[in-house]
Write a structure and sequence with these properties.
Helices cover 18% and strands 43% of the residues. With 207 residues, the chain is α+β, with helices and mostly antiparallel strands. Strands 1-10-14-12-11-15 form a six-stranded antiparallel beta barrel. The radius of gyration is 27 Å and the shape is elongated.
Length: 207
């Protein structure tokens, strides 16, 4: 065997060994990733919502200027007029809030207890709500770290789990594509603006 043949032979052996190392590293990396990280794309920016109900049945008349999105505590934001008695009842804002949703159109009839507005307190703290497969959620613990990529936000943010909810009574409420899931709430270390409410996010939980 010539020197050139030996070089070629050992070069082939070297390439084979390198390929084995790369494949092994990839496999080990995937195994470690599955052992140490839980991932979900079923997540969004979350803030607590306030549902403002109609105090009585009647016709809804808003008092706000069209397009107004912020209201103050004690402000009259609508009136409900009883069609029979012609009396009106004021709808009062319970907080300094943003109006996330207006459920009724002017002059529509609404039954007592029906939702008029969905509100968000102006000083509300944003967090992350994430759905996780039941098989994976049992690996998570309160205080576990998370890294979150929020759609449209340049850099990832971090947080810790502060609540885990598993609905054992009505599991169908948290079922996606037939797979039962629980809900995990994450407190953010870097707050994000309330305007990002409901913005989709991708979460990695580090075990």
């Amino acid at each position: 065997i010539t020197k050139a043949e030996n070089i070629r032979k050992y070069s082939i052996y070297g390439l084979i060994a390198l390929a084995i190392i790369l494949v092994s590293s990839f496999i080990i990396g995937n195994i470690m990733d599955r052992l140490l990280i839980v991932k979900t794309s079923m997540a969004q920016v979350y803030v607590p919502l306030i549902s403002l109900k109609a105090p009585s049945s009647g016709v809804y008349y808003p008092t706000l200027i069209k397009g107004v999105k912020t209201i103050s505590t004690g402000q009259v934001i609508a009136r409900i007029k009883d069609a029979k008695t012609d009396k009106s009842i004021d709808v009062i804002s319970p907080c300094d809030c943003y109006i996330a949703k207006q459920s009724m159109l002017p002059t529509q009839y609404i039954a007592e207890g029906g939702t008029l507005y969905t509100l968000i307190e102006q000083n509300a703290q944003t967090s992350i709500e994430a759905k996780v497969d039941i098989e994976e959620i049992h690996r998570l613990k309160l205080g576990s770290d998370a890294v979150i990529d929020i759609l449209g936000v340049e850099k990832p943010v971090t947080g810790t789990i502060y609540n885990i909810v598993i609905d054992t009574i009505s599991p169908e409420k948290t079922t996606i594509n037939g797979a039962p899931q629980g809900v995990v709430y994450i407190k953010l270390k870097q707050p994000v603006p309330i305007v990002l409410y409901n913005r989709p996010a991708f979460v990695e939980f580090h075990l």
